[in-house]
Specification:
This protein is mostly helical and 81 residues long. The chain is built from three helices and no strands. Helix 1 crosses helix 2 (29-37) and helix 1 (10-25) crosses helix 3 (51-72).
Length: 81
């Protein structure tokens, strides 16, 4: 049996949930991804995820984290003037 996402947007939601857990809870990306996969909101059978799908989710989450961390220092502190 193959992995079955609840919606077409579920992989993106899973990556976003991973990023949120890393940033707000201070979890390691691997732990955050596992918690997000197994919370039951994105897939009914997370144990069926393939290594390729897992790698893709990890890469997406890492890219989002890098974007967020890069942009964090770019925001003016005094309203942009």
């Amino acid at each position: 049996m193959s992995l079955r996402w609840h919606r077409t947007s579920s992989p993106a939601g899973c990556a976003a949930g991973t990023v949120i857990r890393v940033l707000l809870q201070g979890l390691e990306p691997e732990t955050a991804l596992q918690q997000t996969l197994y919370n039951g909101r994105h897939t009914a059978n997370p144990e069926e995820i393939t290594l390729d799908e897992l790698a893709s989710l990890k890469e997406t989450a890492q890219n989002r984290l890098a974007e967020i961390r890069k942009s964090t220092g770019a925001v003016p502190a005094a309203g942009g003037r």
